Amino acid sequence: MQSFDIDYLVIGGGVAGLAVAAKLSSMGKEVILVEKNNLLAQETSSRNSEVIHAGIYYEEGSLKSELCILGKELLYQYLDLHSIPYTKCGKFIVATSTAEEKKLLDIYENGMKCGVTDLVLNHESIASYKFLNYEASIYSPSTGIFDSYSFVNSLKNDFADNKGILLLGNEMKTINQKGSSFEVLIDDLNNKTEFLLKTKKIINAAGLRAHNIINHLSGKKSFKPNYKKGEYYSYTGKEKLNHLIYPIPGKYSLGIHATIDLGQGIRFGPSSYDVSDLDYEISYSQRHKFYNSIKSYWPSIAIEDLVPTYSGIRPLLEGCEDFLIDTQIFDSNVILSILGYASPGLTSSLALAERVSDQIIQF
Ligand SMILES: Cc1cc2nc3c(=O)[nH]c(=O)nc-3n(C[C@H](O)[C@H](O)[C@H](O)COP(=O)(O)OP(=O)(O)OC[C@H]3O[C@@H](n4cnc5c(N)ncnc54)[C@H](O)[C@@H]3O)c2cc1C
């Protein structure tokens, strides 16, 4: 079997793996990225709301808070530099009852404490949406939406320009610690051949499967998934929005919000319910729950206005609400796993790439 020595191996061509690979290669490192699909970003990175989050909700000092707030700045700069379409449309978070008003104030205070200081309570422009029901609101002007497909393509070009090697349709099968390096078995799915990559440094950015890889290598079941599926429905009614509208968030999700796309179409989502399988079918049984949740802030909405579109699965971990960058050393070899990387992972990706690259080059 053929075998190749390399400095850095990145497993997974979603936004996390790609951003890290682009960053490491820009530092002059020799990097191979393997992605099992024939195209990049076919999983969670293309099944989301495409929102650039401001960083309002996350606990102060958490990785989510830090990486989202820095990532937002880096992302806006990157989009400008590469002429990638986006709009800083802003968003409203609405409270629909007195009980929710208290939660809204907590969210406002948390955001301000974390450094998102541009939030405005009860901004008058929400009044133009006569069809919305709310008692109070927060306006976040730095929230936006962007073309994540073009972003992924641009990162791919950066990686190629830096002489990074991208192997699509190549699945990482096993990792073994063999003396002075890891031996990684790769299955080239298109050519039906296998080969070995030998490396001392691995970045495990396998998204929904990242916990399996590190559990398997360590021989411990340290990380258990807590997958939450989220479905989206397009809106076919007559109302128009220029901002995003969010309800008060739940524990695992920011609530079924109304987002606009760059063409100003409106879609609602994502819902949140437990799943154990990685399938993206939209469940008809969830439709009424979905509809009722929107009705609380948009009472005139009709169920016929909602057309199922797509779904995504949040790669959460049991017992951990934050992102986790797990570092494990086997002999002198290091594997760094990006775990629990759910929302705001798109927004945070460039900050994550800086953090992960800085950490792994220390070894
Ligand atoms: C419903 C939903 C809504 C969201 N909305 C937003 C939002 O509006 N804004 C925001 O900032 N974030 C949002 N997020 C979060 C964001 O989408 C994710 O954080 C991000 O896309 C995760 O990227 P990733 O690269 O870690 O994972 P993925 O995109 O899943 O990439 C992992 C890759 O690894 C590959 N892989 C797995 N195993 C192997 C293997 N053995 N060999 C080779 N390749 C392998 C997979 O094929 C996949 O391409 C949302 C997430 C969800 C689920």
Any overview of this molecule?
The structure is a single chain. With 363 residues, the protein is of the alpha/beta class. It folds into two domains: 3-46 and 150-224 and 320-361, FAD/NAD(P)-binding domain (3-Layer(bba) Sandwich), CATH 3.50.50.60; 91-141 and 228-314, D-Amino Acid Oxidase, subunit A, domain 2 (D-Amino Acid Oxidase, Chain A, domain 2, 2-Layer Sandwich). Helix content is 27%, strand content 29%. It has helices at residues 15-26, 63-81, 98-114, 148-161, 210-218, 287-295, 345-361; strands at 3-5, 8-11, 31-35, 51-52, 86-87, 91-95, 120-121, 136-140, 144-146, 165-168, 170-178, 181-188, 193-199, 201-204, 228-235, 244-246, 257-260, 266-269, 273-274, 306-314, 324-330, 333-339. The strands form five sheets. Strands 10-3-2-14-22-21 form a six-stranded mixed beta sheet, sandwiched between helices. Strands 15, 17, 18, 19 and 20 form a five-stranded antiparallel beta sheet that branches. Strands 1-13-12-11 form a four-stranded mixed beta sheet, with no helix packed on it. Helix 2 (63-81) packs across helix 7. The structure holds flavin-adenine dinucleotide.
